[in-house]
Amino acid sequence: MPIRSRTNVAARWPRRARGLPPGQRRLGTFPRFSDQPHRRPPPPPARVELRIGGPGLADRIVALDELLALPQHERRSDFHCVTTWSFQGLTWGGVSLADVWRAIVEPHADTAAVAPFAVAAGADGYRAVLHRDDLLSGDVLIAHTLDGAPLDARHGAPLRLVSPSQYGYKNVKHLAALELHATRPASTLRPKEHLRARVALEERHSRIPGRLLRLPYRAVVPVTIAVAERHAEPRPAADRDDGPPTDGPRGPARRGGPTD
Predict the structure, then answer these.
(1) How large a percentage of the chain has pLDDT more than 70?
(2) Which H or E run includes 96?
(3) H or E stretch at 25
(4) Distance CA 21, CA 80 (A)
(5) Nearest-CA neighbor of 81 among 217, 185, 189, 173?
(6) pLDDT, tens digit (0-9, with 9 covering 90-100), for 23-43
(7) Position 4 pLDDT exceeds 60
(8) How many Cβ atoms are within 10 Å of 232's Cβ, its own excluded?
(9) E strand or H helix at 73
(10) How many other CB atoms sit within 10 Å of the CB of residue 249?
């Protein structure tokens, strides 16, 4: 198994390789990565749970035991960051998001069948807007293991959304909530977030063609990895939030950024 907990200079440079999607380059390590790399992961939660709700819906708190009671899957896939690096051959373990939707979301919310959008919110404050068609794709997991071991803080413990066909900024780490929306929510990343972010179509940005961003995005990869890895230890438990931030009078909260 490749050593992913430590990175060296050579491993931080994306390099050409066969079999990768348009504009992607192979990376020799699977690093911690964020466009705010100085921010440390959140402290471990007191309880592992997932909040399901949304405008006009009462919150449904899903305990870890409920997720573990659903069929568990291990799926091998490649990971593609919007900044053009890819790491191949990861094995994620967890529950299918489609199973969670059928078993928990639909019985809880009558609006689930007509809610075409969702927001996946992380305990670090990061939020990604997703289309239901992508969210319910058969390869999307709520993961709790990576390569047979429990997720660590670097890669999104305790729960992480894993959507292999979309860029990494849709793969929300420290997943804490899933919010259903009848209308498309505003993105906290603004135009940097493409609604679909499909890797095969190079949907890196909502306005700028993906191929034009390859070089400027790739240029920041090595230094971003270096900074993110230096800040990989979680914040102290005293800094634990009560939950993911919600939209308030001043607009959507934003802590965090596109992730590994």
Answers:
(1) 85
(2) strand 85-96
(3) strand 25-26
(4) 9
(5) 217
(6) 999 999 999 999 889 999 999
(7) no
(8) 16
(9) strand 72-80
(10) 4
Alpha-carbon distance 174 to 75, whole Å? 19
188, 242, 236: which is closest to 61 by C-alpha?
Answer: 242
Query: Tell me, what's the pLDDT at 236?
Result: 78
The residues spanned by each domain of the chain are 10-239
Beta-carbon contacts of 20 under 8 Å, excluding residues fewer than 6 positions away, are 26, 78, 86
- pTM (2 decimals)? 0.88
DSSP 140-168: -EEEEEETTEE--GGGTSS-EEE-TTB-G
Instruction: Please name the residue ranges forming H helices in 8-145.
Output: 64-69, 97-100, 106-108, 132-135
Q: Which two tokens stand for residue 3?
A: 């050593």
Span 118-127, pLDDT tens digits: 999 999 999 9
Q: Extract long-range pairs of 143-151: CB within 8 Å, 24+ residues apart.
A: 143/92, 143/93, 143/94, 144/64, 144/67, 144/93, 144/94, 145/74, 145/92, 145/93, 145/94, 146/90, 146/91, 146/92, 146/93, 147/1, 147/90, 147/91, 148/91, 148/93
What CATH architecture is 10-239? Alpha-Beta Complex (3.90)
Amino acid at residue number 226: A
pLDDT at 112: 65
pLDDT at position 128:
98
Cα distances from 118 to residues 9, 105, 135, 151, 167, in angstroms, run 38, 12, 8, 24, 17
